[in-house]
Write a structure and sequence with these properties.
This protein is 31% helix and 23% strand. A hairpin with a 7-residue loop joins strand 1 and strand 2 (13-16). By secondary structure, it is an alpha+beta fold. The chain contains 2 helices and 4 strands; from the N terminus they run E-E-H-E-H-E. The protein has a domain at 46-81. It is elongated, with a radius of gyration of 16 Å. The strands form 2 sheets. Strands 1-2 form a two-stranded antiparallel sheet. Strands 3-4 form a two-stranded parallel sheet. 0% of the residues are buried.
């Protein structure tokens, strides 16, 4: 399902997921994983990280995500003692 909205996107945004996900078909999933892996290894694809929060600020991270201001992924860092 795709949703078109005009929130904080400087115009219209298209969000959601395609109706036919590659994960529903084992062959398509394998092709998708291969495409992504090869793209990351060749440095043609890379994740877009918008913000990073320490685990102690998890509530702030949730508020940031709920504000729909992010462009990319929001990372929460967990450190072990």
């Amino acid at each position: 399902m795709w949703v078109v909205h005009s929130g904080d996107c400087r115009g219209e945004c298209l969000t959601g997921a395609p109706r036919h996900s590659p994960s529903a078909d084992a062959h398509r999933l394998a092709r998708a994983r291969s495409f992504i892996t090869q793209g990351l290894e060749a440095r043609h694809l890379w994740p877009v990280i918008d913000a990073s929060f320490p685990f102690e600020q998890i509530a702030d991270a949730h508020r940031y995500i709920e504000s729909n201001r992010q462009f990319g992924k929001v990372v929460v860092t967990v450190t072990t003692a």
